[in-house]
Amino acid sequence: MKLTIDQIDALKELINIGVGQAAGMLNEMIEFPIRLQIPEIRLLSPLELQNELKERMGKDPLSAVQLGFSGSFTGSAQLVFPTESAATLVSVLTGETLESPDLDSIKISTISEVGNIVVNGVMGSIGNVLNRPLDYAVPTYAEEKIEHLLPISQSHDDATVLLAQAHFNIEELQVQGDIVLFFDVGSFEVLLEAISAVV
Length: 199
What we know:
8-stranded antiparallel beta sheet; Chemotaxis protein chec
């Protein structure tokens, strides 16, 4: 499926509203200002997503927080980090050093909280602006290789994946993560129709 420039701009705007709200909440958690930017979004198949993430983030296990959503459209949203970026972000948020033996145990709860804030912000802005309320599942944390992070129901080729690269700028640190939205078959078309109705 090819998106028009207007559709890409609208999707990017919706996601930017969400990450703006998320950045505001994250800024209340720490003393360093966080800027969250979404330089680009792309539409991919599940296989293209796997290849893209492997190329940019390497083959090591990734840290991901996943949140299922349902309502007018169904699917799941993930915030995905290279493990090193996740550790850096946790270190900044908690004050633990990267060498701390406690970092791993703190990482799960911290990244889960960040993922919950960012993913809820993004999906909340999409639902609110389009007036399409969504229900959410409880967020889950996983540290897995890329091929095991894809939700089972979206791993076939006719699913639609929206990839938004997210740059977390914290002081001098550049922490990169990706927001990945998986839409069940047919749901992405419903989203585009909802966007057309308000644009």
